[in-house]
User: What shape does this take?
Amino acid sequence: MMNAIETERLQLTELLEADAAFMLELLNSPAWLKYIGDRGVKTLDDAAQYILNRIIPSYRKNGFGFYLVKLKENGVAIGICGLVKRDGLEHIDIGFAFLSGYDGKGYGYESASAVMQYAREVLKLGTIVAITTKDNVPSINLLKKIGLHFKEMVSLPGDEEELMLFEFQE
Assistant: This one.
């Protein structure tokens, strides 16, 4: 298990099966459904299985994954931010999603900047990419703010939708 990534206001930790209620809420939030898509997670058990089968294996296999973003002051979970190795992408991908009540407070920038620093300094990644839909302006703006630049349009295996690929290179 990785040590927590800490920022001024946030703590990022590995997701656990016990975080199922939070994941159920996040995976069914309007922004997730609009920009990322329906993962078919409709119950607490579905959410626990999603964490066990889709999130936790990455920690063991890759040494990184999506992390739970919590407010330091009260321990409230507000989103996820982390790194993933996706089929169809050559490089490691940074991704993030937050509950709507925490938009516009700088938490996305704060957590994504910390994950970028972790990726470069601890994991020694020279190139980091990100994907997003063309209409996800908040994500596009955040990717640019953390130093990624638009490279090209791509499609992931098994998905017809064209996504914007952003890249950071040291």
Remarks:
- The CA atoms of residues 42 and 146 lie 33 Å apart.
- The longest strand covers residues 77-84.
- The longest helix spans residues 44-62.
